[in-house]
């Protein structure tokens, strides 16, 4: 048997949400203590934290997608938000997901246990606390676009974009292999557009999908005709399987996720790539024309994303991160295929 004092657990006193600092009182997450983390079975999906509010100290009204069970162990306080009630030792507070709630310590304050059932404590991720405070709820699209800024910057440093300024890019074989990859991806992208239209059920999402298809239709053939050389389809397994991941998303994900991936990730990355490709391939007008269109195509789905529910926002943020991971993997693989049988590039670190 081993006894661990409450004081041995690391303390969190505040969280930054929506750019504002919020007082949490005292939060001590069990999983941040090595012995407790090892003792609690990971498969249980139970996350437990000690929480403390002093007399008069307030945890402002907030909400989170995960339901929570609060066990008041000692002291007293009161609840705020959707229900206002005095609570004391022995009381159990059931907080449904996305329910507005807050707490204030009274008399001597209180100690309680906060329990979640998804395997992750609410404030375990310091950079992305799983809570939103009242009065600071931005519209869903703003949340996603704020996340997206980071991914755009990271994509700008991808191997494919760096290759354009590398000396190895002067090799005509490298350029042709890159164009073969671009043509293969462009053909698959046309399939993604059609799949999205076919699988979308919401009327508003389907209209945007149709408008997008009409504007993109035949762009792959434009590239094929402008190249003036035979296209050799690329069958590299990593390249193909990454493209297939996007096909799977268009087939099986929600309308919201399809819209997010198509307009924010694929068109967002396309805008960056086509701008740089226009500089690298000035004799192929496809890249200049497509780059100009991509900026407008990014904005096509933004209004739809503003309709997302709190539960959908979480799914969309996860899909956004995964989508950028996959498109970056795709582009890095294109760079590797283009450089096949050539010297290893000496990418500039400037």
Description of the structure:
The protein has 350 residues and is of the alpha+beta class. The chain folds into two domains: 6-133, Jelly Rolls, CATH 2.60.120; 140-338, Heme oxygenase-like (Heme Oxygenase, Chain A), CATH 1.20.910.10. Helices cover 48% and strands 19% of the residues. It is built from eleven helices and nine strands. The protein has helices at 34-39, 140-155, 159-163, 172-199, 203-216, 219-227, 237-252, 255-280, 285-299, 302-305, 310-338; strands spanning 12-17, 20-29, 47-53, 58-63, 68-81, 86-88, 92-95, 101-116, 132-133. Strands 1, 2, 3, 4, 5, 6, 7, 8 and 9 form a nine-stranded antiparallel sheet that branches. Strand 1 (12-17) and strand 2 form a beta hairpin. Helix 4 packs parallel to helix 7 (237-252), helix 7 packs antiparallel against helix 11 (310-338) and helix 8 (255-280) runs antiparallel to helix 9 (285-299). The longest helix is centred in the C-terminal third of the chain and has 29 residues, at 310-338. It starts with 11 loop residues before the first strand and ends in a 12-residue tail after the last helix. The relative contact order is 0.12. Residues 343-350 have low confidence and may be disordered. Residues 50-106 form the Cupin type-2 domain. It comes from Rhodococcus wratislaviensis (Tsukamurella wratislaviensis).
């Amino acid at each position: 048997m081993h006894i661990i004092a409450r004081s041995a657990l690391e303390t969190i006193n505040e969280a930054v949400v929506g750019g504002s600092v919020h007082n949490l009182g005292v939060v001590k997450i069990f999983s941040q203590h090595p012995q407790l983390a090892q003792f609690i079975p990971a498969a249980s999906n139970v996350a437990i934290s000690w929480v403390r509010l002093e007399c008069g100290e307030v945890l402002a009204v907030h909400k989170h997608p995960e339901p929570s069970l609060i066990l008041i162990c000692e002291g007293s306080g009161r609840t705020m938000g959707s229900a206002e009630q005095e609570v004391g030792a022995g009381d159990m507070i059931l907080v449904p997901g996305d329910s507005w709630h807050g707490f204030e310590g009274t008399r001597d304050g209180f100690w309680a246990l906060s329990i979640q059932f998804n395997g992750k404590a609410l404030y375990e991720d310091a950079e992305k606390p799983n809570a939103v405070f009242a009065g600071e709820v931005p519209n869903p699209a703003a949340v996603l676009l704020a996340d997206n800024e980071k991914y755009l910057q990271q994509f700008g440093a991808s191997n494919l974009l760096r290759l354009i300024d590398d000396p190895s890019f002067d090799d005509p074989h490298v350029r042709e292999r890159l164009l073969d990859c671009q043509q293969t991806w462009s053909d698959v992208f046309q399939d993604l557009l059609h799949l999205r239209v076919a699988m979308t059920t919401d009327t508003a999402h389907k209209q945007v999908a149709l408008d997008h298809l009409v504007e993109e239709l035949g762009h792959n053939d434009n590239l094929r005709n402008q190249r003036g050389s035979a296209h050799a389809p690329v069958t590299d397994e990593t390249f193909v399987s990454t493209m297939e991941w996007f096909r799977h998303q268009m087939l099986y994900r929600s309308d919201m996720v399809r819209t997010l991936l198509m307009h924010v990730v694929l068109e967002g990355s396309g805008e960056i790539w086509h701008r740089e490709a226009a500089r690298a391939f000035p004799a192929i007008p496809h890249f200049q024309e497509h780059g100009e269109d991509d900026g407008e195509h990014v904005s096509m789905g933004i209004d739809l994303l503003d309709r997302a529910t709190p539960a959908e926002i979480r799914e969309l943020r996860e899909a956004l991160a995964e989508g950028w991971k996959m498109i970056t993997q795709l582009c890095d693989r294109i760079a590797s295929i283009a450089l096949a049988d050539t010297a290893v590039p000496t990418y500039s670190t400037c």
